[in-house]
UniProtKB/TrEMBL annotation:
Note on how the cofactor is bound: Binds 1 Fe(2+) ion per subunit.
Amino-acid positions noted as binding Fe cation in the UniProt annotation, renumbered to this chain: 96, 98, 157
Cofactor(s) required, per the database record: L-ascorbate; Fe(2+)
Gene Ontology MF term list: 2-oxoglutarate-dependent dioxygenase activity; iron ion binding; L-ascorbic acid binding
One GO process term, biological-process aspect: DNA damage response
PROSITE patterns for this protein: FE2OG_OXY
Source organism: Hyphomonas johnsonii MHS-2
Family annotation (HAMAP family): Hydroxyl_YbiX
Extent of the signal sequence: none
Binding site for 2-oxoglutarate: 167
Domain of life, source organism: Bacteria
Fe2OG dioxygenase domain ranges (all copies): 78-176
Name of the featured protein: 2OG-Fe(II) oxygenase
């Protein structure tokens, strides 16, 4: 399942995010890559250890974790700390697979879903598409600033070379309460059905109660211990 959420950050949210990012320091992105990915990772990564960086992380996590589509599609248990990346002219991130686990100690999570939150106007840079390999097809996405792309962490993916301008993005990972992608998609389909039928069904109608029951029991059945 690949989803593009177009309203993750509105204009005000984008302006606030950019204002915070402008004060951050940058380092070589390869420093934080795995043993294989570091050979194909050619970008910059923001140092988020400052007070401003901590504030930015908190704001991003609150916004992303509260979005109804993230909650319905991801059934999140935990979120990683977000990563802010900048890819300038000549930079790219070659084909790779995300690590199965991210973080250390209590913050260590299993990566079921990955996301990229695009922060740059697509007209301000050339290249920089997020390219995701799936069985029998290759998907290339470059949405508007403020849009978030959610996709399975199990997918091979890359960031195409930026040939003009600079690409700013936030990336992160979600550990789901439902590890199996097929079961997670089944619940998401039912959540969408419930949302579309809500205007037509009274909260205590038999149909709505049965649908609520099925969704709750499937989540209970599919959830990891």
């Amino acid at each position: 399942m690949l989803l593009t959420i177009s309203d993750m950050l509105d204009e005000k949210g984008l302006l606030e995010t950019h204002a915070l990012i402008e004060t951050l320091r940058w380092r070589d992105g390869a420093e934080t890559a795995g043993s294989t990915a570091k050979h194909v990772k050619h970008n910059l990564q923001a140092d988020l250890s400052s007070r401003t960086g901590v504030k930015l992380c908190k704001q991003l996590l609150v916004t992303i974790s509260a979005h109804p589509v993230i909650r319905a599609a991801g059934q999140p248990r935990r979120f990683s700390e977000p990563v802010v990346s900048k890819t300038v002219e000549g930079g790219a991130y070659g084909l790779h697979i995300d690590n199965a686990h991210m973080g250390t100690g209590d913050s260590r999570i299993r990566t079921d879903l990955s996301y990229t939150l695009f922060l740059s106007d697509p007209q301000s840079y050339a290249g920089g598409e997020l390219v995701i390999e799936r069985a029998g097809e290759t998907l290339s996405v470059k949405p508007d600033a403020g849009s978030l792309v959610l996709y399975p962490s199990s997918s091979l993916h890359r960031v195409a070379e930026v040939t003009r301008g600079a690409r700013l993005a936030v990336v992160g990972w979600i550990e789901s309460t439902i590890p199996d992608a097929g079961e997670r998609e089944m619940v998401f389909d039912l959540e969408n059905l419930r949302a579309s039928l809500s205007p037509q069904l009274a909260p205590q109608s038999a149909e709505r109660l049965i649908l609520d029951k099925v969704i709750a029991n499937l989540i209970r059945k599919f959830s990891a211990a």
